[in-house]
Known about the structure:
Blueprint: E1 5-11, H1 13-16, H2 24-34, E2 38-45, H3 51-58, E3 64-68, H4 79-86, E4 91-93, H5 95-105, E5 118-120, E6 124-126, E7 135-142, E8 145-152, H6 156-175, E9 182-187, H7 192-202, E10 208-214, E11 217-223, H8 227-238, E12 243-245, H9 250-261, E13 265-269, H10 275-281, E14 290-295, H11 299-304, H12 310-316, H13 321-335, E15 339-345, E16 360-367, E17 370-378, H14 384-403, H15 408-412
Parallel strand pairs: 1-2, 1-3, 3-8, 13-14, 13-15
Antiparallel strand pairs: 4-5, 6-7, 7-8, 9-11, 9-12, 10-11, 15-16, 16-17
Helix pairs in contact: 2-6, 3-4, 9-14
Amino acid sequence: xxxxxxxxCIIGSELTKGIIEDKHSKVISQELNKLNIVVNQISxxxxxxxxxxILKSWLNxxxxxxxxxxxxxxxxxxxxxxIANVANKKLVENEKAYKTLYKMVGKRIHGAxxxxxxxxxxxxxxxxxNGTAPxxxxxxxxxxxxxxxxxxxGPPRELKPMxxxxxxxxxxxxxxxxxxxxxxxxTFLICESKLEEACTRLKIDNVKWGTxxxxxxxxxxxxxxxxPLMISSLRALVGKELIVDDNIEAIDVLINDLIQNDYTxxxxxxxxxxxxxKLLTDRSGSSAxxxxxIVSYSNSVKNKVLNVNSSILENYGAVSKETVLEMATNAxxxxxxxxxxxxxxxxxxxxxxxxxxVGTVWFGFSKSDLPPQAVxxxxxxxxxxxxxxxxxxxxxxxxxxxxxxxxxxDIIDKWEYI
Length: 418
């Protein structure tokens, strides 16, 4: 693949001193990755003019360079003159920038403020309706032809609209990206590195792909004439249930099934501590399908509230097939729902054993007209919160599959990449 490449420079002394956190590079790099643009470097630097040397060193290795910050009126805002020097251009007054600035600051435009009306000669203005400092973009000669430099303001409320409304559309046109020719998929339970490993393993020609991390899923973008082959092959490799068309959350896969069939649902949670109930009730209108949840964290509550037989807890333990089956079945009865699911596992960092290591989670499912089912997943993700979030996503997907009458054991047998 002959991918375009880019680097990102974030400017601000508040960033290098740790006063504020850099979020710009994440926003920009995620969108570039979605377009299959290789991000070579990300640098965070002071407002001290060092950007000039950095840009010169990057020119020959990048098709595009994205710069944020350093466009204000103060003496340490040196981005404007530094880019002009790199491009071997002089700073010139931009008429539109001057008029916009005058409307905002009036007579105060003279002096330091005036610098915000200047951009490198032959560069294109990027208007900023949310602040006084506009951005600009332009091409600079390099060994590989030309490198396009984008300069955007640092404040988030100014940068994001400029990036999404002006810069990103230009980049898409520059690389020949077409929304119609790109398929967006949602993948669940697979970490980004393993998803990329699976995509690379397929070795399918004439296809481009990129990923974008999100809290409860990884978005996968596929384009090229062999996109259908890539998608079908990937589904066969990692499990077709873990890759869903469009931009959708796992919880919405389940909610759609519940609404379409007019089902009510309840849950009994142990290791997730009510996370599933929380996520379900985060959805507006959830009262139409969600009756309630029981957080049965201790064995005592499992026994006294959920009526899990004490002999089951003693003989098999809280994290077992037998326990989650009773939890799901009894939760459905207690909550008077059409379907119920249960979760019991070891989220860590302590509590794991050789037989039941940290990351072991059992899921139970019950519906009046279906045989109850229980399955075990062993999550390789580290961290207590990571395991709990992954378990909640799995519960939503597995419940949806259970409602469709699938054998869950047969399905998870193919989930080697989780």
